[in-house]
Amino acid sequence: MTTVVSSDGRRLTLGSTLGKGGEGAVHHIVEAPDLAAKIYNPGKAKERRDKVAAMVSGRLNDKSTYVAFPIDTLKSPSGEFLGFTMKKVAGFKSVHDLYGPGSRKTEFPTADSQFLLRAAINLANAVASIHATGCVIGDINHSGILVSNKALVTLIDSDSFQYRVSSDTYRCLVGVAEYTPPELQGASFSKIDRTPNHDNFGLAVLLFQLLFLGRHPFAGKYLGKGDMDIKTAIKDGRFAYSSRKAETMMEAPPFVPALGDYGEDTLEVISISQPPPSSKLSCLSGLIRLLMTSN
Ligand SMILES: Nc1ncnc2c1ncn2[C@@H]1O[C@H](COP(=O)(O)OP(=O)(O)OP(=O)(O)O)[C@@H](O)[C@H]1O
Ligand SMILES: [Mg+2]
């Protein structure tokens, strides 16, 4: 049994593993069933120590209910920084399981289009609330976003978020190309400050995937010569559902909802621009009302 020590000197016992990533492992805590402990892999803790301490003292966990933010730092009995506590997220599944039609059947068997829209609204709300804390997600992607069977949304891996406090910016050092805006494709993330608007591109991709059977908005049939990968399509602005087909040289894949099925306003918001999450929110709320009255 591994013993860790909280900032007030309380000794806590690490239980079984809830999950593992590339940076550390997340455990149950025997004495605190509502909390989880993230313990960094050897060598990783040192570089995260100041960032996690800043997130704890900024009380980010009190500022957004949509995120498992660090609550307290954890040390070894000899005083070495090991990781942090956060709320335990139980009964949630990856947003990827929801937007993929195959996995949706098994993981979210009762989810209909209204459920997808509620999840989309909650996700937009979550991103807005994260931006209000002074954080930028940076590495927005499907594996850090969890959805409950009530379409509630929670983000994990918050210690990778960019966090700016007074003159210090703790950057997000990673990113997934499919959710990265055109201007950051190929960029070296350790050298740049991310903005909320960068997140909004990733958010728009996720909203699109939720409403379009998991399809990526920049994946389609390329009408030019050779292959077109998603990174290049994003960089070149080749939105696969665009009416400017002569310009984008892209055709939407078959058997997906048509853009018009969701209404012009919605599609303009989720596909073309990078508006603030709040405007996505009002737009999607309008759409939900429409669907509810037409059913
Ligand atoms: N608050 C939590 N409650 C329950 N399980 C969690 C929680 N946070 C993380 N997990 C589980 O632990 C796994 C690893 O967590 P996390 O993504 O934070 O690790 P990481 O090492 O930083 O990953 P990455 O290499 O993607 O950055 C998650 O995929 C999830 O299964
Ligand atoms: Mg991480």
From TrEMBL:
Keyword Coiled coil attributed: no
SUPFAM superfamilies assigned to the protein according to its UniProt record, in alphabetical order: Protein kinase-like (PK-like)
Transit peptide as UniProt keyword: no
GO molecular function, one term: protein kinase activity
Keywords, in A-Z order: Plasmid
Residue ranges annotated for the Protein kinase domain, each copy included: 12-295
Protein name per its UniProtKB record: DNA topoisomerase type IA zn finger domain-containing protein
Species of origin: Rhizobium favelukesii
